[in-house]
Specification:
Strand order of the largest sheet: 2-3-1-4-5-6
Radius of gyration: 16 Å
CATH topology: Pyruvate-ferredoxin Oxidoreductase, domain 3
CATH superfamily: Pyruvate-ferredoxin oxidoreductase, PFOR, domain III
Number of domains: 1
CATH class: Alpha Beta
């Protein structure tokens, strides 16, 4: 199974990828992860690759090839469009509709409208779940919970339950942060509606 996560620095993309890998390992699979991070720590592009399989030898590289991702999780619509070539035909995408001004756009003063990217995604990604991450964060009470909301929305697509995501979260975060992030996971799962589930056994490597 291959999952690509993309966003900008400061959105929690790397932590989300670690939680997916933890879920896979908790289920008895072998997992590999890797990141490509932009020049700016906050505001630069961040792409995380997560790959897991029952057999370690089936994952020759931690990097997902173009057209090889079973699922794409986009923390920002512009980054999701940029990384869409990684998604395989028939793959599923979960994307937050809320745009974030990238470092390059901030310097140039030219930030495209997020709605333009969302419209493109609607046409180019048939298996698409759009999530209002900002609204979920408002209800939960923290803008830092976007990554958990997206994981909640993507859990079933990846073959995991929200409960298994929560177990992984408990292993990675301090106890005082668990409740807040649990709410975000559940809000994301509820918002995703009747998503098509990808069978991990059928996922490509």
């Amino acid at each position: 199974m291959n999952c690509l996560l993309c966003g900008v620095g400061g959105q929690g993309t790397v932590l989300a990828s670690r939680l997916i890998a933890q879920c896979a390992m908790d289920a008895g699979a072998f997992a590999r992860t890797s990141e490509t991070i932009g020049m700016a720590q906050r505001g630069g592009s961040v792409v995380s690759h997560v790959r897991w399989h029952d057999h370690a030898g089936a994952i020759p590289s931690p990097l997902i090839p173009l057209g090889g991702a079973d699922a794409l999780i986009g923390f920002e619509p512009g980054e999701a469009v940029r990384c869409l070539p990684y998604l395989k035909p028939g793959g599923a995408a979960v994307v937050s509709v809320n745009g974030v001004t990238s470092a390059v756009a901030a310097l140039s003063g030219n930030q495209p409208d997020a709605a333009v990217f969302v419209d493109y995604l609607r046409k180019a990604a048939p298996n698409l779940i759009l999530l209002d991450g900002a609204e979920i964060a408002r209800r939960v009470g923290s803008a830092k919970t976007l990554n958990m909301a997206l994981l909640g929305a993507a859990a079933r697509l990846l073959g995991f339950s929200v409960e298994s995501m929560l177990d992984a979260l408990r292993k990675r975060l301090s106890p005082r942060l668990v409740e807040l992030n649990r709410l975000a996971l559940e809000e994301g799962a509820a918002a995703s509606g009747s998503a098509r589930t990808v069978n991990p056994k059928e996922g490509s490597i």
